[in-house]
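[stage:ingest] chain + small molecule (carboxymethyldethia coenzyme *A)
[stage:ingest] validated
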Amino acid sequence: MKPSHIEHIGIAVSNLEEAIRYYEDVMGLECYAIEEVADQKVRTAFFMVGESKIELLESTDHEGPVGKFIEKRGQGIHHIAFAMEDASKALEEAEEKGVQLIDRTSRRGAEGLDIGFLHPKSTFGVLTEFCSKK
Ligand code: CMX
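[stage:predict] done
[stage:export] tokens:
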């Protein structure tokens, strides 16, 4: 298992529109998609930076993962997502190496990608996502 690149960095924000304005006006990036991911209880906005992306995450439910994160820790970097050949297989391999998983198999995430998470308790405090296009 080896990631090809950082697919995206997820950033938890309280107000998606305000954060989009910052990335557009100050950073000069273009928001190319806004998408609600009901399953994850978030609204997302995407910006390309080279071959990686910034994914802004606004919670749609204070009991959802991003709602709870902001309540406990405030806005900020929420997760790092690595592009893998096959997210399900990568999850399986990580588990074999003793990593605690959040998802045992991949599920459908934003942009139609297959995604799955490793638990931050097992990854030095960084919520880690695997993504693949399959
Ligand atoms: N990064 C690092 N640590 C985190 C974290 C994060 N994003 N989210 C929670 N934690 C830590 C908490 O600080 C807490 O630590 P302590 O026990 O030391 O206080 C611990 O994990 C448990 O946190 P919690 O608030 O009780 O939350 P839960 O255990 O209910 O859930 C987690 C935590 C990571 C399992 C859950 O957020 C999850 O399943 N995340 C994966 C899905 C997700 O985040 N989806 C949103 C993004 C979707 C997308 O990209 O489209």
